[in-house]
Amino acid sequence: MENASVSNLALKILERWQNDFDTPWKDALESYFQEFMAFFFPEAATAIDWVAGYEFLDKELQAIVRDGEIGKRYADKLVRVQLQSGVKSWILVHIEIQGQPEVEFAKRMFVYNYRIFDKYDQPVASLALLTDASPTWRPHEYSYSAFGSAMHLTFPSVKMLDFADAWSDLETSDNPFAIIVMAHLKALDKGLSPENRMKWKFQIASMLYRKDFSKQDILRILILIDWLITLPPGLQEQFRTNIDILEKKNMPYLSSFERNALLKGLEQGLEQGMQQGIDKGLQIIRDNILYGIQTRFGEPPRDVAESLARLDDQERLTAILQALFTASSLDDILPKIRS
Question: Residue 20 and residue 184: Cα distance in Å, rounded?
Fold first, then answer.
């Protein structure tokens, strides 16, 4: 049964997350790392041996952040890659996706760079994607010196706003980040009326069905678009109705019932967490993860509930619940729960 108060709360929660931008961008980076590098850092992408594969080192990076004792930071991704060279060598790629200007950002890049190098004794490439709305904030280096001794880090930084001048190229690109960038740019445009935001949101989402994306990719990117461009409740319902029509005409593969049921579980858990305390809210999210698994894939292995019970990170639990949107099999979900 539809609950208006829950829906309104969900919109407020999503709007707060959308203003942060971190969660959808992290998901996109992990799902499309090669495409991310090719789109934003093409020179670096050509130097990577993609056939050799790559490895995300999220746990290792979080340990480095804790050991650094430099305050709360968003350390986005650390990836180990092989190089395209005759010698078998690998480097570490540290990527920061920054959603707002920050005075200490360049220093953070420097600190993470040297701490990663200190841990692994391997070259570290620090890369920054700046997704904020300020055209003048463009950090790209950090340095200090004392008594003739000097330290200096220069890092490539790409500004999201710069892609606004290449809109026609974005429309014709087959890289998933072209569509994600278009959605992000419209999310940053505060001059758009709610009606025009809805029109742009649907126009950008419609492109997914005209390009050579898989069904799983379409749903994954559609979720990011929905996250990035917020709408008032009435227009959001109109947008979802239009998307449902598109899905029925093109490639329905996850019913609106399933999608809304999973979202409702997230809404319920977060609302309950606010009202009764975070522990209760986390338990409700765990329960809805199990419900989502049972709904889509049947009964999970016996250890899944036990593994979920040990998780107390709201961001991770939320990511697992959201992953149920795009998972094609239970095997896509289990490693996220058990790791």
Answer: 12
Q: Where are the alpha helices (DSSP H) in 99-252?
A: 105-120, 167-172, 176-188, 194-207, 215-228, 233-249
DSSP 83: B
CB 279 within 8 A of CB 251: no
Q: Which element (helix H / strand E) includes 16? A: helix 4-20
What's the pLDDT at 149? 96
The CATH architecture assigned to 42-155 reads 2-Layer Sandwich (3.30)
Whole-structure pTM value = 0.71
pLDDT for res 79: 95
DSSP code per residue over 270-291: HHHHHHH-HHHHHHHHHHHHHH
Query: Are residues 132 and 96 in contact, defined by beta-carbon separation less than 8 angstroms?
Result: no
Judge contact between 259 and 325, C-beta under 8 A: yes
The one-letter code for the residue type at 29 is: L
SS3 195: helix
In angstroms, the CA 113 to CA 124 distance is: 6
What would the DSSP string read from start to end of 30-64? HHTHHHHHHHH-HHHHHHB-GGG-EEE-HHHHHHH
Collect all residues with Cβ–Cβ distance below 8 Å to 15 and sequence separation of at least 6: 230
Q: 259: pLDDT confidence band, cut at 50, 70 and 90?
A: low
Q: How far apart are CA 93 and CA 124, in angstroms?
A: 6
> In 72-185, where do the E strands start and end?
77-82, 90-98, 124-130, 141-146, 149-154, 157-159
Going from N- to C-terminal start, the domains of the chain cover 4-18+167-249, 42-155, 261-338
Check if the beta carbon of residue 30 is closer than 8 Å to that of residue 36.
Answer: no
